[in-house]
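Model it.
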Amino acid sequence: MFARPKTCLVYSTPMPNAAAVVLLDSVTEVTVAHADCVVVTGSHGGQSAGRYALAVHARLYVFNDAGIGKDEAGIAALAMLDVAGQPAVAVAHTSARIGEAADTWTGGVISRANAAAAAHGYRAGQSLRAVVEQRFG
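Modeled.
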């Protein structure tokens, strides 16, 4: 059986206000080494994802909205992280493949932002990559 390699890349385009952009196919791969980075995941933004994200403070967490779902279960992590003052956004499931952080980074369009992220200028409809590069570039 073919096993896809895990993605854990640091985006290396020079950004003077250098926030490393880390691409993780799953938020379960987040470690203290990713603290204060922009952590782009391929994970859904449900409660289980939120619990992993709460363990490591980042400049921004990015999830897939997974179609939002019943009672907004696909983005529950955004509210959890907002309580902790942690900026987090979700990209539309129609703009990026779930489970693929690289696709989230290259094509993701923000569908939801928590209040902490909104305070930093993240809004629905923005290209994830463009707004991060604008903010930290």
